[in-house]
Amino acid sequence: MENLDNYLKKHSPNIQVKYKKDIELFLEWAVPFKLQENEFCLQHFQGYINHIQEKSIKNHAISMALTALRHYGYMLVSTGTANEKLAADLYIKGIHKQALPSLLSYEEVLRIFKQWQPKGIAGKRNKVILGIKVFQALTEDELKHLQPEHIDLTNRKIKIPSTFAGKKRTLKLHKIQLESLQHYLLKTRLTIMAISEKESNQLFISLGEKERFNNITNKMLQDLKKQFPQFTSYTHLRASVLAHWHEKYGLTKTIKMAGHHYIQAASQLKKRY
Questions:
Q1: Residue 265: what pLDDT?
Q2: Beta partners for 159?
Q3: Which one of 40, 55, 145, 170 has the lowest number of neighbouring Cβ atoms within 10 Å?
Q4: Least confident range of 91-95, 217-221, 228-232
């Protein structure tokens, strides 16, 4: 456990004890599989989460176990112990309370983006949001913190500020996005501000009284799932896009483009994967 102790040093002593206890329980559960640390795969981590859920453990405890297992997985990556498949799956799919369904092909992702045509002024805004999810794979938290100044149409770039969800970075805009983004910045956003009588620095503004960004994305999700049953969640969509990036650019570049906070755990990936 020496490697784990070193990896968890940044946390308080109490949190370290809790994480190590959850990891020990996972390793005890995994004993019958007779696996070495370099043989673990995402299904083992996900299987353990399913196991403790069946025991009716409280949500808080399950969330703590999820975080502990993520740290354990990233520790395995940082020490060069994890096999290539586990390293990729941790960064692309992640460990969740419910395992993600089969990922969408990138062709399917593009088809959904092109065929989804929401109506009205809000629809124009929502199409831009979906485009940023599809082409830059931003999280909800990152989208919420975007401001107009972060969009550089001249150089075809988007500057993503550092948030709890991801690291600061700059990504290229896809040519498909440019026209709709320009129209949104020059017309649609100003119209929404006028209708809602709001003054805001945020790039995306709701038409209703409530300011919460997820009011926008929750309605989008309902509409997308209704029209495209294979679209299950934004996490599912993001993992599908990251899987495409992984195939095209490799794991190290994918992690950087995704703004992953655990990029330090991937410092050994470039020469190994």
A1: 43
A2: 170
A3: 55
A4: 91-95
Instruction: State yes or no: pLDDT of 1 exceeds 80.
Output: no
User: What is d(CA 68, CA 62) in angstroms, rounded to the nearest whole number?
Assistant: 10
DSSP code of residue 157: E
* Interatomic CA distance for residues 207 and 186, integer angstroms: 17
Which structural domains are found in the chain, ordered by start? Answer: 2-99 (1.10.150), 106-239 (1.10.443.10)
Burial, 229: exposed, middle or buried (Cβ in 10 Å; 0-12, 13-18, 19+)?
Answer: exposed
Distance CA(68)–CA(22), nearest Å, equals 6
With the CA atoms of 68, 71, 77 and 80 taken in that order, what torsion angle do they form, in degrees rounded to the nearest 10?
A: -80
* List of E strands, 155-227: 157-160, 169-172
Residue 60: both structure tokens together = 């808080």
Report d(CA 261, CA 264) in Å as an integer: 8
User: CA neighbours within 13 Å on the CB side: how many for 196?
Assistant: 19
Strand partners, 158: 151, 171
pLDDT of residue 252: 87
CA within 13 Å, CB half, 225: 10
The string of pLDDT tens digits covering residues 179-227 is 999 999 999 999 999 998 888 899 999 987 777 788 899 999 999 999 9
